[in-house]
Amino acid sequence: MKSKLNFLQKIVFAFNIFFAACLLVAYILPFVPPKFSAFLSILNLGLPIFMLINLGFALYWMIRLKLHFILSAILVLAGYSYVSKIIVLNNQSKEITGSSLKVMSYNVRLFDQYNWTDKHNVPKKILEFIATEAPDIVAFQDYMKKDGFTMPAYPYSFVKFKTTSSKIGVAIYSKYKIINRGTIDFPNTHNNAIYADVLIDKDTLRLYAVHLESLKIIPDVKELQKENHQKLISRVGKSFEKQQEQAEMLIENFKSTHLPKIVCIDMNNTPFSYVASLLLEHNLEDAFIESGSGLGKTFDFDFLPMRIDAVFNEKSIENVNFKNYNIKLSDHYPIMATFKLNE
Question: pTM of the predicted model, to two decimals?
Answer without folding.
Answer: 0.90
